Amino acid sequence: MTADDPTEHDREQDRNAEPTADGDSGREETRADGSGAGPGSTGTSDDAGGQVDENSKHEQLDEVRENPEGEKLTTDHGVKVSDTDNSLKAGERGPTIMEDFHFREKMTQFDHESIPERVVHARGTGAHGYFQPYDDPDLGDEYDDIEELTKAKVLTDSDQKTPVFTRFSTVVGSRGSSDTVRDVRGFATKFYTEEGNWDLVGNNMPPFFIQDAMEFPDLVHAIKPEPDDGMPQASAAHDTFWDFASLKPEITHMIMWVLSGRALPRAYRMMQGFGVHTFRLVNDDGESVFVKFHWTPKLGTHQLVWDETTKLWGKESDFNRKGLYDVIEEGYDPEWELGVQIFDEEQAEEFDFDVLDPTKIVPETEVPVRPIGKMVLNETPDNFFAEVEQVAFHPGNVVPGIDFSNDPLLQGRLFSYQDTQLNRFGGANWDEIPINRPITERHNNQRAGFMRQEINEGKVSYKPNSIGDDDPQEASAEEGGYEHYAEKVDGKKIRNRSDSFGDHFTQARLFWNSMSEPEKQNIVDAAHFELGKVERVEIRERMVYDLFNNVDHEFATRVAEGIGIEPPEEPGDEMPTHDREDPSLSMENRTPDTIETRKIAVLLDDGFDDEHVSELRSALEEEGARVKIISKVLGEKSGTEGETVEADKHHVAAASVAFDAIVVPGGEQSVDAMRQQGDPKQFVAEAFKHYKPIAALGDGIELFEDVELPDVDLAGDGDDLVSDQGVVTCRDDGELDAFVEEFVDAIAQHRHWGRDPKEVPA
Ligand code: HDE
């Protein structure tokens, strides 16, 4: 959606609505029961018949939104403050006096304003939006109707937009670490459904490192900074992680994903999401099928390259956070399809892996993903702390129709998330914080605890009771009461790992086989970096001989050659011999034909060719790209025909790594100036090195010639328009339309892996 979309304008107006005199944000009050909603109540109630829509959560949040515009400064207790710069003293130069309540309150608030960061997934960002099921989704031959499978209205009622809040995160780094580190990304969505909150707390990779929750503290201790010196930050590239990994063959499949470009997402909006575990869908008759949840981004799944990410650590360390914020603020609403893989117990028995083992995926070649709805994120938070920091997810938050499997990792999570919130919030009432509240009414006998917000009326806080007519009453399944799937379970208590969890290499090999050659090279390069940082040679050896050589002999050999290890002579004893591939695993097969939201840098200086710039800008913006003018200094730049443009960024504050593509328009004076400057050349060389599309028009080609791009044909020798490996050049203004078309195609491809940019010293 672009800013021209009428619905976008409407929402934009709503967002910018003038605050009212009492500090209200101006959003319309549309509570179903018409009364003023207190923080404990909501826009929906049983009587209201569940009128949930995409604004239901916002209407609830409006009750606690505060806006200081035009207001006087007050203390926390509402007393107006006359001076907030000078503490109260005994005499002009005397000591501060204890009775200065404003000083004490201000300082106490400050002293206590940080809360413990999440033990994992500390760094992240989030946005509001909605989820809407598709009408009559295609579920293949076996199932006609989504309602046959689940009674969860959030997944079945296509007339309803359920409000959501989604938080994306890195896993290992602390709250202040960089966004573009090599890591798994969290993808957690809270659905504020009319039946209570459903949290789908997933990752951007479908397998996981370990099979049992019991191993999680060890995994996290191994990957976090080492306990003696607190290093390294936000990185797996150190001895303790690879020591742990090399002794845990079950980790192999996940390691393949973590070494791949999946661990370097270009943007949160260009990232898949996965529920990871097998869950259950349960219908009205209490029947169940297994399900895997998939989020598929509309813009495709794209990655950064390693060199680029390391530069971004310094130049734009909020790269992914800013990316999400900027596109939503600029009027583009990122969108994902929710897909399901559905299989029953009999099918599950047939697979050559256990569906309860979270180190396994269900390959799409076995069970296709069926899109059943879409999620749109369309509003940035008003306050980072109140919303992003305080949102608290819990995989145990499910609604009727969605249930758990016996995956031992999932089972352990059902304890951990509830528990961790006690640490983060210091008490059990974290569910009352506005961002965590359901939009449904809540009635139970919990009454107290730190920071209780709700004022529960009445004498009774127990069941059974006769004094209060035994309210609140339990609900039957027909009335919406949650009933767990009645799975038959019978077994001896046993502390063991099922044999069906024992194959650690088949799917790791499937992943390797499914990669294109450049993707394989990325994995090998990543292993060289990660294991190259490992000081103990025996750890490097175990990774190569015990794990990688059981995935693929050639892979193990290529890794060994870069890290000072003797390449293995034979494939490992456990190496599967299958040559199966699953095309859905390669990101190269996830590149839809769109350039929406891509950021394009136009390099110019005074004396640029007006026509080039205006044509480029309008054509690229029409395709949904975001065009930014980059010049040596900020301010207005003039073209040859007298047009002027404003530089969005100047060289000291801009870098090619923050852009998806570069274009250099013609104009002799402009290009001559840039040829005297190092930065534009650095821009071009670096973008080329990072496989990005680059383009030049007319005189602009001279800048490319200066950079000496290896083995690339440029327009000039007889050809007016040349497109070679994502380098598009044109010398004839008559070909401008064709040039733009070629450039747009090159941008849509995202990266041009066919290049060999090693010689480029950027
Ligand atoms: Fe988490 N995980 N996790 N995890 N996880 C947390 O909960 C945990 C796992 C995931 O944006 C913590 O509130 C255990 C798998 C996301 O706020 C904590 C195990 C998947 C987020 C926790 C796992 C995830 C978390 C830290 C193994 C993908 C961030 C703070 C048994 C399906 C949510 C918090 C947000 C956060 C525990 C494994 C995803 C400590 C014990 C598998 C996206 O409770």
Helix content: 25-40%
**Main β sheet profile:** 10 strands, antiparallel
Number of structurally distinct domains: 4
Tell me how many strands there are.
Answer: 19
What is the C-alpha radius of gyration, as a whole number of Å? 29 Å
Pfam families: Catalase, Catalase-rel, Catalase_C
GO molecular function: catalase activity; heme binding; metal ion binding
Protein name: Catalase
Domain Catalase core: 74-471
Describe the structure.
By secondary structure, this protein is of the alpha+beta class. It has 22 helices and 19 strands. The strands form three sheets. Strands 1, 2, 3, 4, 5, 6, 7, 8, 9 and 10 form a ten-stranded antiparallel beta sheet that branches. The site of CIS-heme D hydroxychlorin gamma-spirolactone 17R, 18S has 25 residues, from strand 2, strand 3, strand 4 and helix 13. Its EC number is 1.11.1.6. Belongs to the catalase family. InterPro entries: Catalase, Catalase_AS, Catalase_clade2, Catalase_clade2_helical, Catalase_core, Catalase_haem_BS, Catalase_immune_responsive, Catalase_large_C.
